[in-house]
Every structure is written in structure tokens, then in C-alpha cells.
Amino acid sequence: MNSISKQDRIKGTLMGAIIGDALGLGPHWIYNPQELVEKFGAWIDDYMAVIPNPRFPAVWASRKDLKLGDVSQTGQVYLLLLESVAVNGKYIESDFTKRFDGLLETLDGTSAGGRYTDEAMIDVWNAKKEGVEWPYAGSYKDTAEAAMRAPIIAALHADDQDAALNTMIRNVALTHCDPVVVGQSTAFGMHIWMLINGIEMKEIAKYYHDHRSEFNIRFKAASNWTGTDAALSLRDHEVSFTDALDRPSVIYDSAHDPRIQIEPAHLVSRLYTPDCRITHLLPAAYYLASRYESDFEMAVLSAINGGGNNMARAALTGALSGAMNGLSGIPERFITGLEDNERILELVESLV
Questions:
Q1: What stretch of H or E contains 225?
Q2: Which CA distances in Å does 254 have to 36, 185, 286, 323?
Q3: 50 located within any domain
Q4: Each residue of 33-57: pLDDT tens digit?
Q5: Residue 308: beta bridge partners?
Q6: What total of structural domains would you count in the chain?
Q7: pLDDT tens digits, 270-309
Q8: CA distance 291 to 120
Q9: Backbone angles phi, psi at 219, to 5 degrees
Q10: CATH number at residue 189
Q11: 333, 301, 305, 340: which is closest to 318 by C-alpha?
Q12: CA 32 to CA 223: how far, in whole Å?
């Protein structure tokens, strides 16, 4: 891994995340493994067309006209942030939220809006319609959309650990306000930061503990609650996510422990459950990136073939594996098959 340049790792993580998202667009949200095989074959190995999904009819209704290699609505937000950072050369929250507002204006507040609006985005849409200002419009849903944006911040501040950490917390909190989700998403982003800087997955816990004094990992979180007098109060809490920073190294060791066998590897999604919860998606992503630490294709395709919310799982896995293997380690067909790939590559180059 250390033979791969820092610039190549940055490009790899930025492209890996959006490639994973796009690979999941067609076979998204099919939870029955046999149904996934019947509809897409024994092994999905490339971008697939969106097909009717009786369990989630709104997914079909909102995506039926999209092309192979298109991205999801989460991918659209990711690209808005990438464009904002690339154009400005830094993170300007007001610029990103202005672009974000433009996307929200095209939605209708239902799941069928846009390229399918997930539950967290619906909460954000409703908050904005009610006049809630950024950065207070975040949802309490425990999903992974904010974590997917974190690699962009990690790449932008690849030379400044404190700036990366603090900017990630602010960006995550725009769409997700649950302290657990903020902590898990930010920890994921800092893991990407470490990988970009040549720290291997198995060494992440050691790096964190060796540099613990350098990490300011507490942040303020507020939650509404009803007190004993039935009055609504607002309480501030100091929240830490120390344990989340240790996670990848533990999972890496498990992935390489001969006593622990998950065969085939994509069944790890069944172990952690294949749904949309960030606490279920991240362990599977860390496992697959560790299991196939030198093989972007197998890591990301295993995330896809695990079914369920394979789109988010593959985006997270793609960001990790891209940071480990660089853009040079991503198969060319995944890059050229990505819709609007030339513009996305230009944005990536601009950020680097």
C-alpha cells in the first residue's frame, strides 16, 4: 500500500465511493438472495439496469429512466459536495448548502421524488420546507449518506488531521443529527484520512492510540427531550466516538484469522444484516475491504452481491478500497462505465 502515491490514493477513494454507489443502482434493495440471483445472475460484475422491484415500487418509479452507470440521489449530493470543494478549493458550507438547496427544490418530499428520496433526506426536505435553517435540518435517521460524503473532506484536508476531523463533524451534522450517526460517520471519514496517509487498515488502532493526544474527538450534541415537568427542554451533551476509531483494525484481524470463516465473503452482509443502518453497513464494508485488501474489484462486487442496501455498502467499501489501492487499482471498466465519468474525473483532479 505504501508504494501507492498519496495523490493516487486520494483519487482512488473519491472515485471508489461514487463507483460503488453507481454499481448498486440496478440491483438495489433486493433482500432475498435467491431473488437477486434470479434477476441478475449468479455474480453481478458490472453496472446493471434498474428493474421493477415489487417490494419497493417507488424505487422503480423514480429510477426507471436512469442509465447504466448513473448515480443515486445520495450520489448526486456527493457530487454536489465534490463540485463545491473542487471549484472553491476549500470547503465553504454556504456554497455546498446552496447547491444542496437547489437539489431539494427538485424533490416533492415523497420517496418517489428525484432518483428515490430516502428517509433521512425526506426529513431534511420537510425541515427546510418548514423554514429550518442549516445546519439544524438534520435527521435522526441512522443511515449512512453522510458517511459517504466524508471521504471528500478527508481528501480535501489530507495534510491536516484537525481540519479534517472538525470539518467532517460539521458536514455530517447537516443531514444527520443523531450523535451515534455523527460519530460513526466521522470515524469512517477519519479512517479514510488515515488510509490516504499510508496507514494500513491493520495499523489504524495503533495509530490512533499512539496519537490519541492529537485527536479532539468530542463534539457537542443536542437532543430534544421531555422533562419530568412535561416541558420540552434542550440539553447539550459532550459526545465521544473513541471506540469507533478502533473498529477497522479489529475487523481486519478477524478477516485474516483462519479460525473465522465467512464463505463466500459477500455473506458478511447477512451476518451484519443487509439493511440501511450505518452500524450494520460499516462492519461489512471494513470486512470486505480487509478481506480483499489488494483487490478493489472483489471487495466492491462482494458488497454488491450481498444484496439489501448494497448501494451504500458498496459506496463505503469502494471509498475504503479506493484509498488502499489508489485509482490505478480500480478496473478501467468501472471508470469508463460511470455516467459523466470525464467530468467527475476532472473534479477529482481539481481537488487533488
A1: strand 218-226
A2: 27, 22, 10, 20
A3: yes
A4: 999 999 999 999 999 999 988 888 8
A5: 30
A6: 1
A7: 999 999 999 999 999 999 999 999 999 999 999 999 999 9
A8: 31
A9: -145, 160
A10: 1.10.4080.10
A11: 301
A12: 37
